[in-house]
Amino acid sequence: MTHTIKALAVATLAVGLSGCAAHQQRSQMEAFNAAWVQGDYLGAAATMEAKATLTGGDKAEDKQLLELLHQAEAHRLAGDTATAISLYDRAETGMKLDDTTGLAAGLLEGGKAVLLNDAESDYTPMLAETVLVNTYKGLAFLQQGNRDYARIEFNRADDRTRRAVETFAKEITAQQEAMAEEAEAEQQSIQQSLESDALQESIAANYGETSQWSVYPEFIVPSATYLHGLFFLASGETGDLERAATSLKRVAEMTPGNRALAADAELATALAAGKAKREALGDRVWVIYENGLGPVAEETRFDVPLLLFHGNTTSPAYTGIALPRYANRQAVSEPLTLRDGSGETITPEAFSAMGKVIHTEMQARFPAVLGRAVASAAIKALIQTAAAEEMGAVGQLGTALFAAATTQADLRSWQAIPDHWEVARLARPDSGRLTLAAGGTALGELSLPDWPYTLVYVKRPSAQSPAQVSLIDLQGEHGGEQLSLHGAPSGDEAGELVADAS
User: Contact 287/456 with Cβ under 8 angstroms?
Assistant: First the structure.
């Protein structure tokens, strides 16, 4: 324990620095969200620039990863696909740097997480976030008419999904190995505390049973897997149709009752089997709608019982831990409706709930998250005991204040993702026009390009923001168009539509 007490002086300084960083991060995220919900995407991107510059520019992608993710998606929505792709490329560089951290740096990051808290480590994105990075890049490349690069990105998203279970297993193993590096008494305290019925009962009472969360049967971001399948359905060669069928069937099975998903899975299966021909389908339109604001993490703090080994004695103790709990924010309540030239109205059907995706991942990650929180609590409790013996009441008070200040949950997340996705499919209207409305109020009218397979990709973070619409050639042969649908301004006659090209 002596080496830990010596580290206390350095850690105490880090507490002050981390407090300043945490405050800056909260302020930065509040500014981002204030602009984001109003549809001011360039303003939202600007809120994330200062910290990225301060942390060292292009050579510090792993240190500014969270800022890069927010900037990239904001620029994509603003219609600047080139900047968005460049920022997403830098974010991927940051993810690779995080994955290949050297041994010494990795031990330092792990030590900070245990001695301080998870929030003091460099940001490691959720696997769901990494899948969406490649998905959004794929959409951006399609928007540019770059079919080959879009194919690469959708395949990368699918590959990340495939490797998710293996990644979870590695994370849990790494946590167990990290615990084994601790001194014997510390390891014994942590392991026996984690295995105690009392601790598990406390977790269930204060945090809830993770086994009761609403989750998908396997890790998947259904919207990403759906777009993978849809791209290969529309643009792939004969062999790609089987991949399209696999992805689309997988999503349809995870969202039973969704007619659009079921129809696409059936179509892909028929095409792959040679029972249908794409040429006979006629021109088709798919509408995908990103609705609302995605979940954010909130802190849950409570005391848990620990078994502390000090010298030859064992003593029970109650001490605090902090865990992240994800809470839904808000979806746009007014349903999006589509009206073609004949007057037929179509309402997209919901699928791919982001809260459910995150719970699926967190359920797998929770043993590691809990293990680090308990390890941190046990070590801080042992530090207090040792400090009281060596430095008396002053040492005990100082270490108690240190423990209280550093017991924090990691609440960082990519807040540019939606509450959920919705989907609809239809034959291209003869008029070539499609009207979008929300809750009966017209948002705007689209003039659909004359393409065989058109994707209308809509994103609307809040009812206060315009609907950002990307018109995309799913075959990747033409550059797309970006529109911002504001609806009818106040005072205009009902039904007058405004659509500004971005």
Answer: yes
Q: Which residues pair with 453 in a beta bridge?
A: 284
At residue 314, does pLDDT exceed 80?
no
Both tokens of 115, joined, read 């001695």
The predicted structure's pLDDT at residue 343: 80
Structural tokens at position 438? 């929300």
pTM of the model: 0.85
* Half-sphere CA count of 234, side-chain side, radius 13 A: 25
Whether 324 contacts 373, CB under 8 Å: no
What secondary structure, in 3-state letters, does 37-104 show?
CCCCHHHHHHHCHHHHHHCCHHHHCCCCHHHHHHHHHHHHHCCCHHHHHHHHHHHHHHHHHHHCCCHH
* Cα 348 to Cα 39, 263, 290, 345, 445, distances in angstroms: 22, 13, 11, 10, 17
Read off the tokens for 312. Answer: 């030859």
Q: Which residues lie across from 337 on neighbouring strands? A: 437
Residue written as tokens 């309540």? 333
Taking the C-alpha atoms of residue 106 and residue 373, their distance in angstroms, rounded to an integer, is 18
User: pLDDT at residue 393 above 80?
Assistant: no
Closest C-alpha among 231, 234, 244 to residue 273: 244
Q: How many helices (H) and strands (E) does the chain have?
A: 15, 13
Percentages (nearest 5) of helix, strand, coil residues in the chain: 55, 20, 25
What is the C-alpha separation between 140 and 135, in angstroms, rounded?
9
Provide mean pLDDT across the span 372-393: 74
pLDDT of residue 3: 47
pLDDT band at 464 (very low <50, low <70, confident <90, very high): very high
Question: Which amino acid, one-letter code, is at 501?
Answer: A
Whether the pLDDT of residue 244 is over 90: the answer is yes
Region class of 449: left (phi > 0), else alpha (psi between -120 and 50), else beta: beta
Strand partners, 336: 438
Lowest mean pLDDT, pick from 74-83, 84-93, 343-352, 363-372: 363-372
Run of H or E including 458: strand 453-460
The side-by-side arrangement of strands in the sheet containing 481-485 is 349-353, 420-427, 284-291, 453-460, 467-473, 481-485, 499-501
User: Residues 466, 486: contact at Cβ < 8 Å?
Assistant: yes
Nearest C-alpha neighbor of 4 from the set 268, 228, 182: 182
The amino acid at residue 23 is: H
